[in-house]
Amino acid sequence: MSIIESMKQISKTVLMGFIGPFIALLGITVSILVSPGFTWEDNPLSDLGNYFETDLGDYQLVSAVAFNGGLIISGILQLYFAIYFFKKLDDRPTKVVMIGFMIICISESLVGVFSKNFGFLHQISAVTYFLAIPITLAIAGVAWVRFSTIRWLAWNSLLFAVINVVVIFQSTWGVAFREIINALIVTGWIWVVNYLYYQGKLENLMKKEVREPHVK
Protein backbone atom coordinates (compact mmCIF):
# COMPACT_ATOMS: atom_id res chain seq x y z
CA MET A 1 0.00 0.00 0.00
CA SER A 2 1.42 3.39 -1.02
CA ILE A 3 1.73 6.34 1.35
CA ILE A 4 -1.15 8.12 -0.40
CA GLU A 5 -3.37 5.05 -0.15
CA SER A 6 -2.48 4.72 3.53
CA MET A 7 -3.37 8.36 4.13
CA LYS A 8 -6.74 7.83 2.47
CA GLN A 9 -7.52 5.26 5.14
CA ILE A 10 -7.00 7.78 7.94
CA SER A 11 -10.00 9.76 9.16
CA LYS A 12 -9.92 13.43 8.16
CA THR A 13 -9.73 14.61 11.77
CA VAL A 14 -6.75 12.41 12.62
CA LEU A 15 -5.10 13.52 9.38
CA MET A 16 -5.46 17.13 10.54
CA GLY A 17 -3.43 16.23 13.62
CA PHE A 18 -0.64 14.94 11.40
CA ILE A 19 -0.70 17.70 8.78
CA GLY A 20 -1.26 20.69 11.11
CA PRO A 21 2.28 20.91 12.55
CA PHE A 22 3.77 20.31 9.09
CA ILE A 23 2.02 23.40 7.71
CA ALA A 24 3.61 25.59 10.38
CA LEU A 25 7.07 24.17 9.66
CA LEU A 26 6.49 24.63 5.92
CA GLY A 27 5.50 28.27 6.44
CA ILE A 28 8.61 28.91 8.53
CA THR A 29 10.81 27.24 5.91
CA VAL A 30 9.37 29.31 3.07
CA SER A 31 9.79 32.49 5.10
CA ILE A 32 13.44 31.75 5.79
CA LEU A 33 14.13 30.91 2.14
CA VAL A 34 12.81 34.30 0.97
CA SER A 35 14.52 36.22 3.79
CA PRO A 36 18.29 36.24 3.12
CA GLY A 37 18.83 38.77 5.91
CA PHE A 38 17.41 36.43 8.57
CA THR A 39 19.93 34.83 10.93
CA TRP A 40 19.34 32.30 13.69
CA GLU A 41 21.62 34.24 16.01
CA ASP A 42 20.19 37.74 15.68
CA ASN A 43 16.50 37.34 14.80
CA PRO A 44 13.57 35.74 16.60
CA LEU A 45 11.31 33.75 14.32
CA SER A 46 8.64 36.42 14.75
CA ASP A 47 10.71 38.79 12.60
CA LEU A 48 9.71 36.59 9.66
CA GLY A 49 6.09 37.54 10.31
CA ASN A 50 6.69 41.29 10.54
CA TYR A 51 4.88 42.83 7.57
CA PHE A 52 7.01 45.95 7.61
CA GLU A 53 10.48 44.54 8.34
CA THR A 54 13.06 46.03 5.97
CA ASP A 55 16.28 44.21 6.90
CA LEU A 56 15.46 40.61 5.95
CA GLY A 57 15.05 40.89 2.18
CA ASP A 58 12.93 42.15 -0.70
CA TYR A 59 10.10 39.67 -0.17
CA GLN A 60 9.09 40.51 3.38
CA LEU A 61 5.38 40.49 2.54
CA VAL A 62 5.72 36.96 1.16
CA SER A 63 7.63 35.95 4.27
CA ALA A 64 5.03 37.46 6.60
CA VAL A 65 2.09 35.84 4.80
CA ALA A 66 3.79 32.43 4.74
CA PHE A 67 4.89 32.63 8.38
CA ASN A 68 1.69 34.02 9.88
CA GLY A 69 -0.60 32.03 7.60
CA GLY A 70 1.22 28.82 8.41
CA LEU A 71 0.87 29.39 12.15
CA ILE A 72 -2.81 30.30 11.91
CA ILE A 73 -3.77 27.31 9.78
CA SER A 74 -1.59 24.94 11.80
CA GLY A 75 -3.09 26.06 15.09
CA ILE A 76 -6.65 25.73 13.80
CA LEU A 77 -6.12 22.23 12.38
CA GLN A 78 -4.44 20.99 15.54
CA LEU A 79 -7.13 22.58 17.71
CA TYR A 80 -9.80 20.77 15.73
CA PHE A 81 -8.01 17.47 16.33
CA ALA A 82 -7.46 18.29 20.02
CA ILE A 83 -11.17 18.95 20.56
CA TYR A 84 -12.05 15.75 18.70
CA PHE A 85 -9.55 13.77 20.77
CA PHE A 86 -10.76 15.40 24.00
CA LYS A 87 -14.32 14.23 23.36
CA LYS A 88 -13.11 10.62 23.02
CA LEU A 89 -11.27 10.63 26.35
CA ASP A 90 -12.40 8.93 29.52
CA ASP A 91 -9.28 9.67 31.60
CA ARG A 92 -9.64 13.00 33.41
CA PRO A 93 -5.91 13.77 33.81
CA THR A 94 -5.48 13.29 30.07
CA LYS A 95 -8.32 15.74 29.50
CA VAL A 96 -6.25 18.28 31.43
CA VAL A 97 -3.32 17.48 29.14
CA MET A 98 -5.44 18.13 26.07
CA ILE A 99 -6.73 21.41 27.50
CA GLY A 100 -3.08 22.43 27.78
CA PHE A 101 -2.53 21.39 24.18
CA MET A 102 -5.57 23.40 23.11
CA ILE A 103 -3.98 26.45 24.73
CA ILE A 104 -0.82 25.74 22.72
CA CYS A 105 -2.87 25.53 19.50
CA ILE A 106 -4.83 28.71 20.19
CA SER A 107 -1.75 30.71 21.15
CA GLU A 108 0.08 29.42 18.06
CA SER A 109 -2.69 30.78 15.83
CA LEU A 110 -2.75 34.04 17.78
CA VAL A 111 0.99 34.51 17.19
CA GLY A 112 0.10 34.53 13.49
CA VAL A 113 -2.99 36.70 13.87
CA PHE A 114 -1.19 39.21 16.09
CA SER A 115 2.07 39.37 14.19
CA LYS A 116 5.06 41.20 15.58
CA ASN A 117 3.49 44.42 14.32
CA PHE A 118 0.91 44.16 17.13
CA GLY A 119 3.50 44.56 19.89
CA PHE A 120 2.06 43.60 23.28
CA LEU A 121 -0.63 41.27 21.89
CA HIS A 122 2.03 39.38 19.97
CA GLN A 123 4.27 39.10 23.02
CA ILE A 124 1.43 37.74 25.18
CA SER A 125 0.55 35.15 22.51
CA ALA A 126 4.17 34.05 22.08
CA VAL A 127 4.87 33.83 25.82
CA THR A 128 1.70 31.79 26.35
CA TYR A 129 2.73 29.42 23.57
CA PHE A 130 6.24 28.80 24.85
CA LEU A 131 5.20 28.49 28.51
CA ALA A 132 2.29 26.16 27.76
CA ILE A 133 4.57 23.63 26.04
CA PRO A 134 6.67 22.49 29.06
CA ILE A 135 3.68 22.72 31.41
CA THR A 136 1.57 20.51 29.15
CA LEU A 137 4.38 18.00 28.64
CA ALA A 138 5.01 17.82 32.38
CA ILE A 139 1.32 17.21 33.12
CA ALA A 140 1.27 14.51 30.43
CA GLY A 141 4.26 12.79 32.01
CA VAL A 142 2.69 12.76 35.46
CA ALA A 143 -0.71 11.69 34.09
CA TRP A 144 0.55 8.81 31.93
CA VAL A 145 3.16 7.26 34.19
CA ARG A 146 0.28 5.22 35.68
CA PHE A 147 -0.09 3.20 32.49
CA SER A 148 2.55 0.57 31.74
CA THR A 149 1.77 0.55 28.01
CA ILE A 150 2.64 4.24 27.54
CA ARG A 151 4.99 4.75 30.48
CA TRP A 152 7.83 5.26 28.01
CA LEU A 153 5.88 8.20 26.57
CA ALA A 154 5.27 9.58 30.06
CA TRP A 155 9.00 9.58 30.90
CA ASN A 156 9.85 11.12 27.54
CA SER A 157 7.23 13.81 28.04
CA LEU A 158 8.82 14.71 31.37
CA LEU A 159 12.28 14.65 29.80
CA PHE A 160 11.27 16.96 26.97
CA ALA A 161 9.51 19.28 29.40
CA VAL A 162 12.85 19.70 31.20
CA ILE A 163 14.74 20.10 27.91
CA ASN A 164 12.20 22.71 26.85
CA VAL A 165 12.77 24.78 29.98
CA VAL A 166 16.55 24.46 29.69
CA VAL A 167 16.43 25.61 26.06
CA ILE A 168 14.23 28.60 26.92
CA PHE A 169 16.83 29.88 29.40
CA GLN A 170 19.89 29.00 27.28
CA SER A 171 20.91 32.60 26.71
CA THR A 172 24.04 31.73 24.72
CA TRP A 173 21.94 30.39 21.83
CA GLY A 174 20.14 32.51 19.25
CA VAL A 175 16.51 33.27 20.00
CA ALA A 176 15.22 31.72 16.77
CA PHE A 177 17.26 28.56 17.39
CA ARG A 178 15.71 28.15 20.84
CA GLU A 179 12.24 28.82 19.48
CA ILE A 180 12.47 26.25 16.68
CA ILE A 181 13.79 23.56 19.05
CA ASN A 182 10.81 24.04 21.36
CA ALA A 183 8.41 24.06 18.41
CA LEU A 184 9.93 20.81 17.12
CA ILE A 185 9.58 19.23 20.56
CA VAL A 186 5.84 19.84 20.74
CA THR A 187 5.44 18.90 17.06
CA GLY A 188 7.13 15.54 17.60
CA TRP A 189 5.11 14.96 20.76
CA ILE A 190 1.73 15.52 19.14
CA TRP A 191 2.70 13.40 16.14
CA VAL A 192 3.54 10.51 18.47
CA VAL A 193 0.33 10.93 20.48
CA ASN A 194 -1.71 11.12 17.29
CA TYR A 195 -0.01 8.04 15.85
CA LEU A 196 -0.63 6.01 19.01
CA TYR A 197 -4.25 7.11 18.97
CA TYR A 198 -4.58 6.13 15.31
CA GLN A 199 -3.06 2.73 16.06
CA GLY A 200 -5.51 2.18 18.93
CA LYS A 201 -2.71 2.07 21.51
CA LEU A 202 -4.23 4.63 23.86
CA GLU A 203 -7.21 2.48 24.82
CA ASN A 204 -6.59 2.97 28.55
CA LEU A 205 -7.38 6.64 28.06
CA MET A 206 -10.39 6.32 25.83
CA LYS A 207 -14.09 5.71 26.27
CA LYS A 208 -15.00 2.07 25.66
CA GLU A 209 -16.92 2.79 22.47
CA VAL A 210 -13.88 4.32 20.73
CA ARG A 211 -11.20 1.80 21.71
CA GLU A 212 -10.23 0.80 18.20
CA PRO A 213 -7.96 2.00 15.37
CA HIS A 214 -9.28 5.23 13.89
CA VAL A 215 -9.76 4.78 10.19
CA LYS A 216 -12.68 5.88 8.07
Structure description:
- With 216 residues, the chain is mainly alpha-helical.
- It has one domain.
- The chain contains seven helices and no strands.
- α2 runs antiparallel to α3 (60-88), α2 (12-33) runs antiparallel to α7 (175-198) and α6 (151-168) packs antiparallel against α7 (175-198).
- 40% of the residues are buried.
- The mean pLDDT is 89.
For this entry, give a set of tags:
216 residues, mainly alpha, 7 helices, globular
Structural class by helix and strand composition? mainly alpha
Q: Span between N and C termini?
A: 16 Å
From N to C, what is the helix and strand string?
Answer: HHHHHHH
Q: What's the main sheet like? A: none
Strand-residue proportion: under 5%
Task: Outline the fold blueprint.
Layout: H1 3-8, H2 12-33, H3 60-88, H4 92-113, H5 120-144, H6 151-168, H7 175-198
Task: Summarize the model shown.
With 216 residues, the protein is mostly helical. Helix content is 68%, strand content 0%.
